[in-house]
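Reply to dn_fold:

You asked what the input looked like. This is it:
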Amino acid sequence: MFVVNSLGLATLFCVITMLGWGSWANTQKLAGKDKWAFPLYYWDYALGVFLFGLAFMLTLGNWGSAGMGAFDNLIQAAPIPVAHALLSGALFNLSNILLVVAIDTAGMAVAFPIGVGLALVIGTVLAYMQAPKGNPGLLFAGVTLVLFAMVMSAMAYRKLARPAGHGWSRGVVFAVLAGCLMGFFYPQLSASLSPNFNSAPIQPGLLTPYSALALFGAGLLASNVVLNTVFLRVGGLSYRAYFRGTPRLHSLGVLGGTIWMLALGLNLIASGVVGPAISYALGQGATLVAAIWGVAIWHEFRNAPKGTGRLILLMFIGYGCGLALVGLATL
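and this is what came back:
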């Protein structure tokens, strides 16, 4: 399998993760402009995640002489690590559906900083408890600044004018629920991996990143049969509407899932060098990337009242400084 042992390359992978996780939702925004409801978009997104997870396993998972090939690894995998990987996919799926609802309600500039920011805090703490690696003082100082940025984002969103019946709390509540669930998926996935998989033999029963990614995608797609069907029914939609979608609309969803899964794959590979906590925290710099998309490209605060810009600036400063401290924690 392909492994990374260079700190510089691992850090670059985390930066690519940050860009991918912060940018995939643009495909949902583009689909939404064509009145393509998010449950319909999300089916294609789930397919993109699953298919790219398989692609990772079939290519990099069996390339090179390091470690153990993905197929051999799956054959010897124990039930508990397999369950961890499958459960992580289901947990992420539910949290991400809620996040997409939050994006649809509140926009990228709010849903990501609150939802993914909260996931960053929970996931980083849990991952560090599993595998303490890096400078804890710098790591948790950075997490504290991310919390500050989340508060600034919520305060900025509260100032926006909305139609009657669409108060600021609805988007924030969905984002908080998404963040609480999302914070648990990465520790579950990390728990399925063999320790030091990039430099030590794979422990019997445990997984390589590539077999874990394939199982994660399978768990996400399987859970989507139940979860997204519920959201379809609640939204008054049917699968007939899904099959009426144009190739462009379907391709946007698959592209979104592919971008997200590429980012997860690189992040998991990098975790063998920098540790799960730092790898996850750096990747969740996606919050800053998504906020930039929301403010600068989608103009989600175009009609915000005076004083909102100051809160947005504080949000960017909090995220920027927080992520810088997380990065320094690797040194």
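The chain has one domain: 7-328.
Hope that clears it up.
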